[in-house]
Amino acid sequence: MNEEKEIEEQPKPLVLQKLEEHHADALLSKDETRGTVVVVIRKEQAYAVLEYLKTDPELAYTFLVDVTAVDNSQMESELMQFDYARFMVVYQLYSYQGQCRLRVKVPVHENDLNTPSVTGLWQGANWLERETYDMFGINFEGHPDLRRILMPDDFEGHPLQKDYPLRGRGERESFNFDKQNA
Amino acid sequence: MGLTNTDIQNAQGAEQTDGNIITTTIDKVINWGRKNSLWPMPFGTACCAIEMMATLASKFDLSRFGSEAIRFSPRQSDLLIVSGRISIKMMPVLKRIYDQMPDPKWVISMGACASCGGVFDTYTLIQGVDQFIPVDVYIPGCPPRPEDLIDAVLQVQQKITSGASPKGVEHLLET
Prior knowledge:
The structure holds two protein chains of two kinds.
Chain A: H1 2-9, H2 14-22, E1 27-33, E2 36-41, H3 46-55, E3 63-71, H4 76-81, E4 87-95, E5 100-108, E6 114-116, H5 125-136, E7 139-141, H6 177-181
Parallel strand pairs in A: 2-5, 6-7
Antiparallel strand pairs in A: 1-2, 3-4, 4-5
Chain B: H1 5-12, E1 15-16, E2 22-23, H2 26-35, E3 40-44, H3 47-56, E4 79-83, H4 91-100, E5 106-110, H5 111-116, E6 137-139, H6 146-161, H7 167-174
């Protein structure tokens, strides 16, 4: 109980203060969920904002915990909020210096699945972005090696898109061993 | 395991004549040898593999049945134990390992996942390895207990004793 009170009394998180000061035009939404600051930023400025979050000496979000995506195509409320962007690419960041987490979301429209790769900022983004590409079909521009990482190379489609049938399109019953071994 | 002439006689229907001479057929002797020295190739991809390890370890001790010589090379083994989920990316690997095993070879499909996909009725999981490789013995359970695996090995042994062909060569014999 005491902890909750302390959180309530805290001033606005530093990261929000600084983002409002330096990247106000990129901020689409800001929120705080269970002690984690959640910001939604415009795709066009995503790389610049993430770079700022990493390199700013006061924030220093040097650790990219995860990159993933969400398909909101069946979440009408979420869709309406961000101009009917079907996908939301999610970056989970951690700052060892501030010992705090930050969730950065980037809306991506279905008709333009390109989004900047952050492998230039965090080397660890390489496989995470490959996974997001494999599962959701998000195209990370500037990625050094954007191949499938979980599914077989000749797999068609992106299975975590909500319109992908759970039991697949028959690929699990019929595949060509000769082709795989070639 | 100490073996007397009487053992062979009882087990294989061989006839004993005077002294130390026994008569039998070459198939029976070979099958008797095969049966008691199955060398398993473990293909453990999930929790069933933990039960398989328990089966091999001291408490359940599969070596009592002659199958303790686990080979991690398919070229040296004659019993493939598929224990765990097989994804569509793993299936070609499993198929290749099966193909590398020398004949005669037997396959145990251990657990619900390997036999029918189990609870994972999804786009990526093979719904039963028998769609792609011939399976001799299926073990139900999720995961099966070590006793179930021992029972499956004994069933393979029975199959060998009876002179039945492994599932893998039946289709060759038909043609």
